[in-house]
Amino acid sequence: MAQEQPDGRVMVELVDPQGNTIGLAEKLEAHQPPGQLHRAFSVFLLDDEGRVLMQRRALTKYHSPGRWSNTCCSHPFPGEEPREAVLRRLTEELGVEPTVLEPAGLVTYDVTDEVSGLVEKEFNHLFVGRAGGALRLNPEEVDDVAYVPPAELDAWLAVHEHTAWLSAVLDPVREALVALAAR
Questions:
Q1: Active-site choice (13, 120, 122, 141)
Q2: Which member of 9, 120, 135, 154 has the lowest number of beta carbons within 10 Å of its beta carbon?
């Protein structure tokens, strides 16, 4: 989630194609068609066995409820550094602090969720890392988790309903995940 304003609105940071901040928008408004390009992040954590931690979004989420996605994805607060936002959201959603957290590039995408019609038009900061310790799932955010070996992700995703944006963030981090798993 992004930072809530005193009036209850949740704001995200609008950016230009180079990632420069150009303003703010209410989160839901930024996701309405045709969408507004905004800052986001996605993280993929591995466990000690090198498996990717995937999360099934809570059934009460307004966007993609009950669908599988990467370890954690969200929006930084306006002005918040993406790495700090990742650490905050991993704690809020999964109750975990990574032992390793590395940037894995940037990706911009524009995908529409066919079920809700919401648009993910995001300038996304990608991270990979290792989970540290036991998870403490926040039921308002996460319904379930699964640990999937990287080599089996495509087959696993073929039989699990997942978020519209997952492929857009997974493909650019595959090499970084394999390299991290090999260490």
A1: 122
A2: 154
pLDDT digit string (tens) for the chain, length 183 residues: 445 555 667 899 999 999 999 999 999 999 999 999 999 999 999 999 999 999 999 999 988 999 999 999 999 999 999 999 999 999 999 999 999 999 999 999 999 998 899 999 999 999 999 998 899 999 999 999 999 999 999 999 999 999 999 999 999 999 999 999 988
Can you tell me the distance from the alpha carbon of 22 to that of 5, in angstroms, rounded to the nearest whole number?
A: 18
Q: Would you say residue 135 lies in a domain?
A: yes
H or E element: which one contains 170? helix 166-182
Give the integer Cα–Cα distance in Å for 20 and 36: 14
Provide the domain count of the chain: 1
Compute the Cα dihedral for 151, 47, 126, 26 and give only its sign: positive
Which CATH number do you get for residue 113?
3.90.79.10
Confirm whether 72 is a catalytic residue: no
Tell me the residue type at 101.
L
161 catalytically annotated: no
The answer as to whether 93 is a domain residue is yes
CB atoms within 10 A of CB 62: 10
Domain range enclosing 18: 11-48+73-140+164-174
Could you give the CA distance from residue 174 to residue 151 in angstroms, rounded to a whole number? 10
